[in-house]
Amino acid sequence: MKITSLLRPELVFPNLTVSTGEAAIAQLISALGAVRGVDTELAMKDIAARERTGSTLFPLQARHVAMPHASTKACKQLVVAVATSREGIPWKGTADKANVIFILLGPPETHSLYLRVLSRISRLCLTGPFLEAMLSVATPVEFMDRLTAAEESFGEIVAAEGMPTFCILGAGHGGMAMAGHLAITGCKVNLFNRTDDRIRAVRDCGGIEVTGEVEGVAHVNLATSDPAEALDNMDVLMMVVPATGHRNMAEIIAPHIKDGQILILNPGRTGGALEVAQVLREKNPSVRPYIAEAQTLLYASRVTNPAQVHIFRIKNSVPLAALPAYQTVDILPVIRKALPQFVPGDNVLKTSMDNIGAVFHPAITILNAGRIEDTHGDFEYYVEGVTPAVAAVLEEIDRERVAVASALGIHANTAREWLYLAYDAAGKTLLDAMQSNPGYRGIKAPGTIHHRYITEDVPASLVPIASIGEMLGVQVPAIRSIINMASAMHGVDYWAEGRTVDRLGIKGMSVKDIRFLVVGAETSGIPSPLPPLSPATSLADEGPFAPPPSHA
After folding, report:
1. Alpha-carbon distance 236 to 219, whole Å?
2. Any idea of the CA torsion for 536, 540, 545, 546, to the nearest 10 degrees?
């Protein structure tokens, strides 16, 4: 990262003419609001609070540089704006005038990188003729060109110390968004894909161009199809592939995953953590990583070109649960250093049953199949694709999902509640809430019905919900109809291919037994997908595969 990667011409104001420093700050913050989506009111408040602790104006020979800055929740990434004035702008509390004003804002999770950017600005200002060169420019583009030249000898601002390192497993829409976002936050990021085609452009460009809710060129440490190289010395492994690829990806990484590494499924859909735990137990039974699953994907995003991704929205909060549940408190502080949007989930049953993709994706796609085939997806999927009739079907599927969760002793959020929690999208009905969600605007429908919204969400979301429900005596006719229609459309028996209770290893279990399994307890006679643990071995050292020893 370099400072120029945080700037845009609209954020550079050569020869700014205002009467006070407060007016200059207000104009720069206003520009950041318009260009970067900064909460201007909160940013002004936090800048003012920082200024009260001590002036950020300092002299350099005959000139003065002001660097108002704040660690603030007003923004979602590091942002910079700059103004110059040869005559100087009067600064509050002093008799001096600011000739160059750099404003820097950063969310709390970027604090280490934020300090490094501040240091870089200071070093630049102390470098020979830098200030005079900046004051002589006439246009924003000329300013950025000179800043680029001045930064050349300093190299990249490297990933922040104290931040976890991440390996992103999968270079699809979600994987590219997560890799780009984390790199912009200041983390060291490796990107792994099973084939080299999708990551060659990232490697050639040295990173990912990110647009949308966060913006910038994200430097990726390594983009590779070699799993051993990708996983080496990484703290957190983020699996971001369709749920139908969880098993295969787990088999690929099994020989290379190490004790203590944190593996997170983004998302787990329904039963993902249980399935992956079984695979790792079979392929590498001695290793003890941590395993967790997210309730949904953090991003609404699309890859727009090779090495380019657009992030439509970053969700406000996403529950995360470990398997077993008692280890959530161990792994969450690590993840939240970089991604504070993750919040503790109760357990993997809760995250699995709060799988909103199961409600939306298959039904919207199937009920719009004719339109998708006719237009090749040229309509807004969540807006135009959800009419009152379609929404009524979604409501019924949602009711059945919540009923299955209730049979497991889990309180699942309704889809309407989830939209409010994830996106601040409110409405009296599910249709109203979906229509009011700005994060859904501009997202086109898939170009074909042969899409992961069916091939993933039916076998890995609807089938396990239906299978668990029917084992527990909950009728799910709407969900069954969607599974049957998907099977007929694709000529595939999704009942046979899906995550049934048998494949999840919970067939015949009581609700009590299932709940003991996911929280890490063990009762005599219950088959467990997790490796056994010697009672003499420390649970803290063993990772998530080992449930507490039986006291039977």
Report:
1. 18
2. 30
Structure confidence by residue, pLDDT tens digits, 241-284: 999 899 999 999 999 999 889 999 999 999 999 889 888 988 99
pTM of the full predicted structure?
Answer: 0.74
SS3 for 416? helix
Catalytic residues: 361, 457
| Token pair 């990107």: residue | 191
CA pair distance 403, 477, nearest whole angstrom: 12
- Which pairing describes strands 342-344 and 318-322: parallel, antiparallel, or unpaired? parallel
Amino acid identity for residue 144 in this structure: M
CB 84 within 8 A of CB 66: no
Number of C-alpha atoms within 13 angstroms, CB side, residue 524? 2
Backbone angles phi, psi at 121, to 5 degrees: -60, -45
Asked if residue 269 lies in contact with residue 352, where contact means CB atoms within 8 angstroms, the answer is: yes
What CA–CA distance (Å, rounded) separates 219 from 217?
6
Q: DSSP character for 461?
A: I
The whole-number pLDDT of residue 528 equals 40
**95-150 pLDDT per residue, tens:** 889 999 999 999 888 877 887 888 888 888 887 688 888 999 999 999 999 999 98
CA atoms of 448 and 365, how far apart (whole Å): 9
CA distance linking residue 32 with residue 174, whole number of Å:
26
Distance CA 294, CA 178 (A): 13
Show the CA angle centred on residue 94, arms to residues 89 and 98, nearest 5°: 25
- CA 152 from centroid of its chain's CA atoms: 31
Residue 450 corresponds to which tokens in the numbers above?
Answer: 């042969």
Share of the chain above pLDDT 90, in %: 64
User: Helices marked H in 93-216 — which ranges?
Assistant: 111-125, 130-135, 140-151, 173-185, 200-205
pLDDT tens column, 284-318: 988 889 999 998 899 989 999 999 999 998 998 89
Residue 237 has a pLDDT of 97
Cα separation values, 500 from 290, 352, 459, 462, 503, Å: 24, 13, 9, 10, 5
For residue 238, the cross-strand partners are: 168, 264
Positions in the chain short of pLDDT 50: 523-552
Torsion over CA: 482, 486, 492, 497 (sign):
negative
110, 78 in Cβ contact below 8 A? Answer: yes
Count of CA atoms in the C-beta half-sphere (13 A) of 508: 6
Nearest to 15 by CA among 103, 140, 122, 102: 140
Q: Where are the beta strands (DSSP E) in 316-470?
A: 318-322, 342-344
Longest dimension (CA), the chain: 82
List the one residue out of 334, 315, 237 whose CA is nearest residue 276. Answer: 237
